[in-house]
Design a protein that fits this description.
Blueprint (H helix, E strand, L loop, with lengths): L1 E9 L3 E8 L14 E8 L6 E2 L4 E2 L1 H8 L2 E2 L6 E2 L3
Antiparallel strand pairs: 1-2, 1-3, 2-6, 2-7, 4-5
């Protein structure tokens, strides 16, 4: 599946990522001015257990439930990684 990837800064120099099906807007409940588009139409296996590069667990399940997949608060990525 092709995904658009967004990033936002978190406290303690960490980052969160959000994956949205390519070309679709960020769902309203997740829309936040802090999200910055960092990759477009990136081919990824959403049926994988995770998108490791973005620390997103169960991406396919999240996308089916919410329309997007997001980094868990417990798996935020260190900025600069």
């Amino acid at each position: 599946m092709q995904l658009d990837i967004y990033r936002r800064p978190e406290p303690e120099h960490k980052l969160s990522f959000m994956a949205v099906p390519a070309g679709q807007p960020i769902p309203q409940e997740a829309d936040n001015v802090d999200w910055k588009l960092v990759a477009t139409a990136t081919e990824m296996d959403v049926d994988a257990a995770s998108l490791r590069e973005y620390a997103i667990d169960h991406p396919g399940e999240q996308i089916r439930e919410k329309g997007y997949a997001i980094t868990s608060v417990t798996h935020q990525v260190e900025a600069g990684s």
